[in-house]
Amino acid sequence: MLAHNYQRAEIQEIADLTGDSYELSVRASRTDAAVIVFCGVRFMAESAKILSPGKTVLLPNADAGCPMADMISAEELGKLKSLHPDAYVVSYVNTNADVKALSDVCCTSSNAVDIVRAVPGNTVIFVPDKNLGSYVRRFVDKEMIIWDGYCPTHHHVHPEEVALLKRQHPGALFLCHPECRPEVVGLADMVTSTSGIIRFAKEDTHTEFIIGTEEGILYQLRKNSPEKRFLIASNGFVCPNMKRTRLEDVVAALEQGRHEIRLSPGIIEKARIPLERMIAMGAAATQ
Length: 287
Ligand code: SF4
Hints:
Elements: E1 2-4, H1 9-14, E2 17-19, H2 21-30, E3 35-39, H3 42-51, E4 56-58, H4 74-83, E5 88-92, H5 97-100, E6 105-107, H6 112-118, E7 123-127, H7 130-137, E8 143-146, H8 152-155, H9 159-168, E9 173-176, H10 182-185, E10 190-191, H11 194-203, E11 208-212, H12 218-224, E12 229-232, H13 247-256, H14 265-286
Parallel strand pairs: 1-2, 1-3, 3-4, 5-6, 5-7, 7-8, 9-10, 9-11, 11-12
This protein binds iron/sulfur cluster (SF4).
Iron/sulfur cluster is lined by residues 6, 41, 66-68, 94, 151-154, 214, 239, 241-242.
């Protein structure tokens, strides 16, 4: 049972492993369990199925989707590719399986800069997150054609509210997810993935942090460092889709095998290539 860092506290409490989408996708590919219960949103469970097609992958709540992933279709990416035939296609893992199937490599928020830097050629199509794309663009010397998608949950945060919190808590560090708007990311002391935020807050000597990502992360932060203070950057910093999964859905998944992810063999075969390429590039980057 895998749970994303944005899941409800009671789900994270009973999971075998919690993490960000990269960690969970790698872990899902390595486990020898026959059944994976993936508490997250659909694209994450699809990624687990793509990497482990012989396993049964269950998404406890079938309605848990990702609005950002739905902002680009395979047809739209196909058209974009035909306009830029020499571009290398980098897809954030927050994409549906048929979009991954048209991509050259995937990335996550923790490895996006390294992946875009490492891919061949000077032109990259980056989908679907414009905020992550513009963050990556700051660090790479390549032409980036960035899709106009965004995460409604992170995009909803405005720099004024973060600036106010920083004034009210001058000793706090602002740890921010790159799905936030560039003006918000520009205020950050550290920009990283959810697991990067959790690691940093645990190891750093500061005692107060402003957290620029979905509030489900507070569970791990407070569990790891009960003596530290964590302030969420914006009221209502909640992903409704991540909160759809409840304990009773997990029970139904375990007892009745609900809801199994099914993908066509053709999509699995094609979508596997960019995911495995990302994992191989990630391993090379950490060696
Ligand atoms: S937090 Fe944003 S990117 Fe993540 S699942 Fe929710 S809508 Fe999608």
